[in-house]
Amino acid sequence: MDFRIAGKVAFVAGGSKGMGREAALALAAEGCKVLIVARGQEAIDAAVADIRSQGGTAQGVSADLTSREGINKALDICRSHWDMPDIVVSQTKQYHEGRAIDMDPEQVEDMFRTVTMSAVYLAQATVPAMQAKKWGRFVHIGSGTAKEPEARFPHAVANVARPATSGFLKTLSFEVAVDGVTVNTVAPGWIYTPGMEHFFSEHGWSMEQANAWLKDTIGVPAGRPGKAEEIGATVAYLCSDQAGYITGTWLVVDGGNHFSIM
Question: How many beta carbons lie within 10 A of that of residue 245, not counting itself?
Fold first, then answer.
């Protein structure tokens, strides 16, 4: 299927590794001009080279997207090569372990700054240009715990911040739908990324043992972790022209591990 987004400018946060990288690759394969924004220059360069080796168009920049200054730096690079983004893929990662009863306020503030406010700042900096063009896509790669807080692990701080991000994005979707701009969240479950690989190796598990743990202990019906490229493909579809009537949606990609029907 032709997603009809060839020539669009795509800004991919966290696009150097894992799910963000696969989203960047998928968008580049559809003909988008992709700006990969992350922190580590070596990984950025590798992702850009990968896209170019496949005939795609890409640039990269190292920037801290938890600040307005870092976002503006990245957007300056984007404009210098092409234009303001038509497509934005938002993603940030931060973890603090702890129980709700003894959460550290500083960790809560850090989580809001890193996870919630980075999405707020990025949307505020990019969505108005989409509104002016009467076309735009803002896709946030979030987490299933924004809807069902994780109770099996001490992730209370994340359980507080992630729903706030979802609330902001849902509200934004109401405000900009009339301008042809869609705002959606992809909520991955257990996805095989470098972080998950590290988690499995810490436990000394083979892939067969890891799959058994996911199925029997975590309860993933698919019996395996998801693939980062499955997230990338989902993001690319939500950015497509055909997905123009999908907005305000929270799309779970977790191998059936989310048991609610709503």
Answer: 7
What is the average pLDDT across 100-107?
A: 80
Q: Which of 114, 89, 115, 104 is nearest to 35 (CA)?
A: 89
pTM for this one?
0.92
CA gap 165, 146 in Å, rounded: 8
Assess whether pLDDT exceeds 80 at residue 245: yes
Which is more confidently placed, 200 or 15? 15
- Distance (Å, whole) CA 235 – CA 218: 25
Residue in this structure with the two tokens 């994780």, named with its chain if needed = 150
Rounded Cα distance between 165 and 157, Å, is: 13
Q: Are 151 and 139 in contact (CB under 8 A)?
A: no
Q: What whole-number distance in Å separates Cα of residue 82 and Cα of residue 80? A: 6
* 174 Cβ neighbours under 8 A, 6+ residues apart: 248
Q: Which two tokens stand for residue 147?
A: 């809807």
Domains of the chain, first to last: 7-190+230-251 (3.40.50.720), 191-224 (no CATH)
CB 234 within 8 A of CB 186: yes
Residue 140 near residue 184, CB atoms below 8 Å = yes
Pairing of strands 250-253, 33-38: unpaired
C-alpha gyration radius of the chain: 18
